[in-house]
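Re: that chain you flagged

S.,

Sorry for the slow reply, it's been a week of failed gels. I finally had a moment to sit down with the sequence you sent. For the record, here it is as I used it:
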Amino acid sequence: MALAAAFVVAPRFMAGIGPGSGFAGERDLAEALRTSFTGYWSSGDRELSPGLEGVVDYWFRYHLAKAAIAALLLVVLVALGVRVWKAFVKAEGRGTGRSVALASTGVVLTMLALFSLVAVMANLQGMVAPYASLLPMLTADASDAQLTGTLDQIRRQLADSPGADGHTTPALQLMIDDFARYHVAMAVIAAIVAAALIALSATLWRRFARTERSSRRARRVLGSFGVLSALLALTGIVVAVANTTTAADPSPALLAFFQDSW
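Prediction finished late last night. Pasting the structure tokens below so you have them in one place:
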């Protein structure tokens, strides 16, 4: 419970430690992002302006804190889940009420562990490419005329990319590169998770095969988690392939993103 609360509350304060300054909330961060981004874009430089770099550095530290807390939470939930499911197996024949309570608790812990795993993956991705992960905040509720004009320029350049002179502007190229890195990161993360889940599924099925048929509850738990691990591994493979495809040709996906936010 403490880690779950920390996951929601602590990252904003932890991210404020370090170069630059913290932000009072998401609205304050979004405002700083939009203001600094319009100035950076109009400069035409590839290197981030000091203001925008401060926002990106803050967002990196924010995702770092989130990933660390989510990883700790995942470890705790897995440890608790293993103990609860073992207790559920041992409680076979000792009363329905206890079994139902243990099974319900185990299901909840399993779901929370899956949520924590997804949180770790998403925040690791944000750490690798914090600039690209800020883009949704940049386009959300873009009512400022200067920002709207900037986003329109980005859409036109992406639609015409590469430009008539055969090259992309430095600021846009940096955005495309970081957007590709964003998807490469998730492709690698998803592939690693999928490989781990395949190994886990194989281990569970081996244990299932070696478990005596008389231990019905143990076989049911092992079989259920074996199937769940295999399905999650398949999902991870799909995510890895989809992100690899996007990373190989990021410009159309980036254009689609900006068009959808219009």
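What I noticed first: The chain is about 80% helix and 0% strand.

Talk soon,
D.
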